[in-house]
Amino acid sequence: MPVNRDFIGRQYPASATYEVGREHIRSFAAAIGDTSPACLDPQAAQALGYRDVVAPPTFLTVLNFRFGTEGPVADPALGLDYSLVVHGEQSFELHRPVCAGDVLSSVQSVTDIKDAGRNELILTATEVTDAAGERLATLRSTIVSRGTAAPRAGA
Questions:
Q1: Does 113 fall in a domain?
Q2: Would residue 25 count as lying in a domain?
Q3: How many structural domains is the chain composed of?
Q4: What is the tens place of the pLDDT at every residue in 115-140?
Q5: Would residue 97 count as lying in a domain?
């Protein structure tokens, strides 16, 4: 059964902010094998011009996991069968580095839903801002719903 196309344009603000801590950054860096001193050592980060340890570019995926139950994928009205989902792609547009001490807010939006053969692609964008409202990043994601596209005429 196809997902609900009325979701295009819906926004899902996170219910809380996310305060980035040094240990969050260090743990994430360790998990992905990033040994950059700027991610691990405040003095090394400051020597490079950062105010504190700096997060690897993909660190912001933590927001999608932290607030995943608040987004479109968790909304039953979307009609998505999660057992049919695979991750299509992910991209990060960083406007400035994320550092320890940043307090992040995020709003996820469904930007499009389209057919790709027998599959449906659910495209989302998450805008991330800091406590002052400055844009930090835009995260884009494609979720593939396998085999749920509406049958085409003559197919």
A1: yes
A2: no
A3: 1
A4: 999 999 999 999 999 999 999 999 99
A5: yes
Q: Which residues contact 12 (CB under 8 A, 6 or more apart)?
A: 67, 70, 71, 72, 75, 107, 108, 109
CATH code: domain of residue 97: 3.10.129.10
Q: Which two tokens stand for residue 90?
A: 């992910």
- Whether 28 is covered by a domain: the verdict is no
Amino acid at 9: G
Under 8 Å CB-to-CB from 32, ≥6 apart: which residues? 56, 58
Distance of CA 75 to the CA centre of its chain: 16
Structural contact between residues 117 and 59, judged by C-beta atoms closer than 8 angstroms: no
DSSP state, residue 10: -
pTM of the model: 0.91
